[in-house]
Design brief:
The protein is of the alpha+beta class. 57% of the residues lie in helices and 13% in strands. It has a five-stranded mixed β-barrel. A two-stranded antiparallel ribbon has the order 9-10. The protein starts with a helix and ends with a strand.
Length: 472
Amino acid sequence: MSWLTLYFCAGIIFAHFFKVYFWPLYSLGLALLVICTIFIKKDLIFKRFSSCLIFICGAVLLTNTYILSKTHISKFVSYKNDTVFTVKGFVNSQPQLKDNQVSFLLAVQELEFNRAHYKSCGEILVHLKEIKEGEEGPEGDSHEMRDCHLRYGEALILRGTMHKPFKLYSDRIAAIMRVNMPGCVIRLNRNCGNPVLRFAYFLKGKIEEVIYQRLSKLAAGIANAMILGEERGIPVAVYDAMAKSGTVHILVVSGFNVGIVAFIIILLFKVLRVPRKLRYLLAIPCLIIYCLATGAQAPVARATIMAIFFLTGFLLKREPDIRNSFSLAALFILLINPREVFSISFQLSFASVAAIIFLDPKLNAFFKTECIKLKLLRLITEGALVSLSAWVATLGLIAYNFRFLSPVTVLANIFIVPLATLITLSGFSLVIISIIFPVWAGFFARAIEFLVVVLLSVNNQLVQFPLAYLHW
């Protein structure tokens, strides 16, 4: 399975650097498919031509993403932003409020400008300036958008200026729209979008509500980042300090969080005496909803897919193969969006996990960790080797993309990761207990406050070490 994923990635990279037209690639792919069908019983010939076919499939898939519909929003927008557009569509992400401005993705359905009306498609990034208390929109309209309680799937009509992004915000974003006053927004009082995703965002909002009600602003921001991947509540100084120690990865949702969620879900079902097979079966949709609620970023999607393969293996009573699960997760993500291979998030996530899967066992064998008799010392050594494996694998990517190097990372992870695990577990426990036994929630809230203080103190001490981090 690993070779298949590698050939597929190679095809994507080839199509990126060598601009080849879609139809020649597509025709070549069909020809290779016919050849593979003819020689399916001849192992050597079949393997060679099937490898070429997988390579071409990767190239075809990426090339296809460059082909846009004639009605795509990017066809109507330029880099100038003096034209006023009226756009009809629905909110296709969870709106984010920051600096008196609400930002969200809008799935475009219709477009109007220069007195002409068009059917359209694609996604735009909308920046909506929120009206302050006492301010009024056009013609005295201070209406309900003051609180701006927009939700995923809500249908809107927006009026404002729009332009193409000067920088690559995301492969999904075709244009940026600025709506200066909520009076330029019409809410159509109907919902579109995916009902599963709508439920996932609703659940996320409820979890955030509990976290911010029970914890101080700093602790809530850190807990919210660890549990749901929302970084907006983290002070810049804290984020900068975590980046210096190379432990900023704990402030985003990753496979580490998915593992904790899977453990809690299965444990809850076990306490409720749900049969084992049904436990694993019910855990799969729960993990999918959690993945969607956190934005389905590459690390979370990768971990969720791997967890689903593992749970499916248990259901089928087959020993799960972590290498095949890892390769299938990468292939699945790239089939959905082949451009992810160029995303630094995708690269860091898969590079670190690949190192843990392939390099860490070799380091353990080299240092003979199984011979360490003291259990605590063996656990610390194994943890340090896992951290070292991930650090070595991501060292070049971080240095090249961020011009940053953090030698203290290996040591920092030994202390920071266990603390982050306790905070995450306590955070999920706080949410669950607040619903079932609200009286006990205070204990978990105080535990999180204490653990956050310890984590930040330890991190601040580590970054004071000589040559703890280098930046150029």
